[in-house]
Design a protein that fits this description.
The chain is α+β, with helices and mostly antiparallel strands. It contains 6 helices and 26 strands. It has 3 domains: 78 residues; 137 residues, no CATH class; 82 residues, no CATH class. The strands form 9 sheets. A 6-stranded antiparallel beta barrel has the order 3-4-5-11-7-6. The protein has a 4-stranded antiparallel beta sheet with strand order 2-12-14-13, covered by helices on one side. Strands 17-16-26 form a 3-stranded mixed beta sheet, covered by helices on one side. The longest helix is centred in the first third of the chain and has 15 residues.
Length: 369
């Protein structure tokens, strides 16, 4: 009889594959971090979508004020106290990402999301609106027709059908960059490379690799940042960055961690985990109660009454599982093999790992999310 592979067998196979493949090739520096300042900036804005088929906000105050502001740019002023019913318009929030070195005139994709009672933005057009950065400055202007990936339908009897999210959509190339972000890239005396994760060993190896290619140019600032001397204009600096990004570095082994998702029961164990000598056992107690009531009829011509007689059957079953000995400095594959032999489900695996950690037999950081 064939046995289906368990979750732990798959995890062991996955990490065993990584362990075999890792030493074969060094990683590029560009995959371990990024240069400071060469990042995207988030833009946000507020706008009005018009042309909806009766699925707008319908007289929300901020939608009315937004529409009054939009039409006032064209010389149209609504009389005081007049609030139009905006069933064909909706107030929206606009978000976009400004890539590094974006120049005026370049186009950006934007996401448009309803913030009021609008049920669908399908068929709508966004009226010209500004996009602001974190400093309050306008960096782009956006306008265009929305592409909606969702669908919402309401029937007269109150039934509804919704596919995906019809109250959010995108405008491909709908924003035009109006202002460039000054990163100071061409004027600073040095470049700073930041690792994605703090690791003093990786920082040292990256520094050594840069100094081997460009002697005396790199200095560690801390376990996550390396300063690199730079001179000349933008062309020389970009050539320097290109050369540094493609240098190979053997990444240090990560810290031993066991990640446990308490909500889903998912357990991820990295290859650096080691287990000291420990004896582990895990049992399962099952109590089942079966109710079998029966009806009791009185004898003929007696004055008795029909009654229900309760009948309960209680069964207690306890699975016997032998004690498993985990050897000292056991590797990930050995730990998973031991757990597989015990037939432990994911929920009980969490309890075993917590117990090993409390007993001091688990050489790893136990992270529960």
């Amino acid at each position: 009889m064939t046995q289906r592979p368990t979750l732990f067998t798959l995890i062991a196979f996955l990490f065993a594959s990584f362990a075999l493949a890792a030493p074969a090739q060094a990683e590029r520096i560009k995959d371990m971090g990024q240069f400071q300042g060469l990042r995207a900036n988030q833009l946000t804005g507020y706008g009005i979508v018009v042309g909806l088929a009766g699925t707008g906000d319908d007289s929300l105050d901020y939608s009315t004020l937004g529409m009054k502001g939009a039409v006032s740019r064209f010389g149209l002023t609504l009389p005081p106290g007049v609030n139009p019913s905006l069933k064909n318009a909706a107030a929206v929030m606009i978000t976009a990402e400004l890539p590094p070195f974006a120049k005026p005139g370049q186009r950006l994709d934007v996401t448009v999301s309803a913030i009021g009672k609008s049920k669908s933005l399908r068929g709508g057009t966004l009226v010209l609106a500004p996009l602001y950065g974190a400093d309050g400055q306008i960096y782009a202007m956006v306008q265009g027709n929305l592409v909606i990936g969702g669908l919402g339908v309401d029937a007269a009897d109150g039934s509804k059908l919704t596919v995906n999210v019809p109250s959010s959509g995108r405008i491909a190339g709908g924003a035009t960059v109006e202002r460039a972000v000054d990163t100071g890239f061409a004027t600073s005396s040095e470049l700073t490379f930041n690792l994605h994760q703090f690791d003093a060993t990786n920082a040292k190896r990256v520094t050594d690799a840069i100094n081997a290619a460009i002697p005396g140019s790199a200095t560690m600032l801390d376990g996550a940042s390396i300063a690199i001397r730079a001179s000349g204009g933008g062309d020389e600096r970009m050539r320097l960055i290109s050369r540094i990004e493609n240098l190979g570095v053997q990444r240090a082994e990560p810290p031993a961690k066991v990640i446990v998702n308490a909500r889903t029961g998912t357990v991820v164990i990295n290859g650096a985990v080691r287990v000291g000598t420990a004896a582990v056992t895990q049992g399962k107690l099952t109590v089942s109660i079966k109710e079998s009531p029966r009806v009791v009829q009185p004898a003929p011509f007696s004055r008795g009454e029909t009654a229900v007689e309760q009948s309960s059957d209680i069964d207690v079953e306890e699975d016997y599982r032998p004690v498993m000995l985990v050897k000292q400095t056991a590797s990930l594959s050995e730990l998973v093999d031991a757990i597989n032999r015990m037939g432990v489900p994911p929920g009980d695996l969490v309890a075993i790992l917590e117990a090993l950690s409390q007993a001091g037999a688990l050489t790893a950081e136990l992270v529960i999310i």
